Amino acid sequence: MYQWRKFEFFEEKTSGKCSIPEEVTGKINCCSSGRGKIAVGCDDGMVNLLDRGLKFNYGFQAHATSVLFLQQLKQRNFLMTIGEDEQTSPQLSPICLKVFDLDKMQPEGSSTTSPVCIQILRIFTNQFPEAKITSFLVLEEAPPILLISIGLDNGCIYCIKGDIARERITRFKLQVESVTDKSSASITGLGFRVDGPALQLFAVTPTSVSLFSLQDQPPRRHTLDQIGCDVNAVTMSDRLELIVGRPEAVYFYEVDGRGPCWAFEGEKKFLGWFRGYLLCVIADQRNGKNTFNIYDLKNRLIAHSLVVREVSHLICEWGNIILIMSDKTAISVGEKDMESKLDMLFKKNLYTVAINLVQSQQADAAATAEVLRKYGDHLYGKQDYDEAMSQYIHTIGHLEPSYVIQKFLDAQRIYNLTNYLEKLHEKGLASKDHTTLLLNCYTKLKDLEKLDVFIKGEDGVGEHKFDVETAIRVCRAAGYHEHAMYVAKKAGKHEWYLKILLEDLDEYQEALQYISSLEPSQAGITMKEYGKVLVEHKPVETIEILMKLCTEEGESSKRGTSNGTYLSMLPSPVDFLNIFIHHPKSLMDFLEKYTSKVKDSPAQVEIHNTLLELYLSNDLNFPSMLQENNGEELNLRARSSTGVASLSRAESKEKHVVEGKDVHKEKDRLERHKKGLSLLKTGWPSDLEHPLYDVDLSIILCEMNAFKEGLLFLYEKMKLYKEVIACYMQAHDHEGLIACCKKLGDSSKGGDPSLWGDLLKYFGELGEDCSKEVKEVLTYIERDDILPPIIVLQTLAKNPCLTLSVVKDYIARKLEKESKLIEEDHRSVEKYQEDTLNMRKEIHDLRTNARIFQLSKCTACTFTLDLPAVHFMCMHSFHQRCLGDNEKECPECAPEYRSVLEMKKSLEQNSKDHDRFFQQVKSSKDGFSVIAEYFGKGIVSKTSNGPTEAQKSGSFPTSSGF
């Protein structure tokens, strides 16, 4: 006992002692608690019900003589009593069992206020002989099924099972002891144990502890111990253990035998169990005093100790422990709240007891963590850092980690801090800053073993108890690149893995191998981010990887033949153009390989545009050019401080090197231009209307880089012939200019003959002697009759270097030709005049003289002409039957006449279409001939009868402004 600490975790309620109400007049034989009331059975047969604070509620006469035992049920508001009634016959025992329904009271007309008695049972019968009752216990199996156990002084237990209210019951007897000495065979205590379907009954006598398995038929008895106890020294714990109190100790029994025992000296008059506490009323034989102790067995402390007088009953209700004395006084003891108990322990620095207390009473985790924190602070103040940290570790998840970290940073206890941070990561509660701090601790301690365990000791892919990026960053900063790479690879952080390889270790080949092992989509992302560095150091290998990504290499064998749908899902080379920003030659190689392998790429136009820009640019190596320029500046500075002899030697050497470089560059440029021209031609085949590149961009590139061949090809494909000859004119390439006009100026091949006029104008404004070229041009102008001679003369007259001999032959031939034409026109005029004169004579003859019709045959049927006959002025005659009804025109001459009229009508309508007239004038070689034709056909020379008629007809008057 002296080892157990005493604390005042309980306190007396009602400001001291209280007592049983005066309404309870008889001696108290039994008590029972439950459902918020205390039932008290007295020797006068009365049962009194007490409310909170032991206030009298009501009482009723349960038995005629005395109430021996009673018990309140928990699941139903029933009260079961055993008592003595009046003996009606010598053969019947006065002891009976009654069941009262406390929810049903007697009618108002009755003389007393009492609950309804729903059943009365005789306990003793012929099969169950009468004996003294020493114990009583009721188990509510499954209402309304009850199991009643009645212990007797002869070592037997009478059991009644069933629906007591309806008297549907079975009785059976359990034999505990068979000895004749009733003092050692009396049943002093009973206890039910329900463990799932198993129903067991503990039975205690002064000399034994037994266990009956009631699910067996017949019930099987098992002796647990050969010692027992007296009445009132038996109780059950909340873990369904049987507790037996003897003078030397308190024993606990499980179903398989005796369990732990606690050595408390003194006679155990009463035992009880309350919320995990053991209640004992112990009689001290030395001083004759009774002590009431409340034991916390788990924490090995006495939660309360009180000297009391003679205790007659011990019950628990309303959260309090109530001791009823033999003189009807009572003591009510209640438990203090947890905060009060902890404050009491903290004042005495009993932190271990406080921790055990909150854990044993299953306090919430936050309250437990607060106790642990205070204990840790206490140990930290005593500079017991190791033990303090062990307490702080238990607060993880409830106490802010910065509280602990700050303390141990100040104390410079890096080992303890490391331990705390490790636990924090194990529970998955660490933040990025905690990971950073822990890794810094490892690196400061240079503890590679722990660092390996922290980084590499986790199972499962992607499951990390720390922030991955933080771990990588800290390991990189500390120089632990292997660990950083391990974390990055395991977490799938490919960008970090490659960043370490390329930026820290310069392992370009390994980086390329790693990228090759990735999924195509992920490899594409990493190449976009780190391609610039890889192209700079490993251009060939980088291009190979890009080719695998952008083409079907490695996949075509799996998928069989390639198809456009799959090709469109692959990354495009255009996506990787930015990584070649400082390496255009590598870009050119990459795009050339791609185009040679993939012919129908969705990004074909963009790729060709990029290739053209590379082919046509004057200088690909612009970064090296910058370096060369910087080098030249340095050379100039050096030359300023040297002598004349050294200057000349340096200049000669530098000139030789520069000339070598220029030759190489020029050769490279010509080769690229050749490729560019080939790309322009292959990208625009004759069967395509639009090329496989941007035409406008191509023209701009050719103009910027003075690529004449490409420009000429594009202009010719776009049928911009004037721009083509403009290129030759700009280059003063007379031979090429004439050859181009021969090719593009032939109208029979779809050319534009007006190019010769532009060429003649060029030579006329050239300002130099170009007689040979002009003569050749005049040959084609004369052949196709492109320009009038007067225009030719006016154009060539502008060039002062040209003489008349250049055009003498041309003018002579033209004049001879014109003379022949004039003669032909004179003959045509004479013929037309003669025809006109004949027509006028015929008209006059028709108007003045009679016609003699001498035809003897019908023109239509060629039979002999007979009457009636029809004669036309055109000298055709017909039978009247051969003509249709109302025929007024000669069937032979009418079609020709109608065609003439329709032609005339069409010409008159055309005369109103001014736009068409001017278009014919503009597009004709000789506009005057078109106007003359209109006048000749009488379209524009038609006279009007007046202004009104002219406006209506829309025809032109003779005074037209043509």
UniProtKB/TrEMBL annotation:
It is a peripheral membrane protein. Keywords: Membrane, Metal-binding, Vacuole, Zinc, Zinc-finger. CDD domains: RING-H2_Vps11 (cd16688). Gene3D superfamilies: Tetratricopeptide repeat domain. The keyword Repressor does not apply. Residues 858-893 form the RING-type domain. It holds the Pfam family TPR_PEP5_VPS11. One of its GO terms (cellular component) is plant-type vacuole membrane. One of its GO terms (biological process) is endosome organization. Its main location: membrane. Residues 941-962 are annotated as: Disordered. The keyword tRNA-binding does not apply. It is found in: Endomembrane system; Vacuole membrane; Prevacuolar compartment membrane. One of its GO terms (molecular function) is zinc ion binding. CHCR repeats lie at residues 392-543, 561-772. Core component of at least two putative endosomal tethering complexes, the homotypic fusion and vacuole protein sorting (HOPS) complex and the class C core vacuole/endosome tethering (CORVET) complex. Involved in regulating membrane fusion at the tonoplast and the prevacuolar compartment. Belongs to the VPS11 family. This is Vacuolar protein sorting-associated protein 11 homolog. It comes from Macleaya cordata (Five-seeded plume-poppy). The lineage of its organism: Eukaryota, Viridiplantae, Streptophyta, Embryophyta, Tracheophyta.
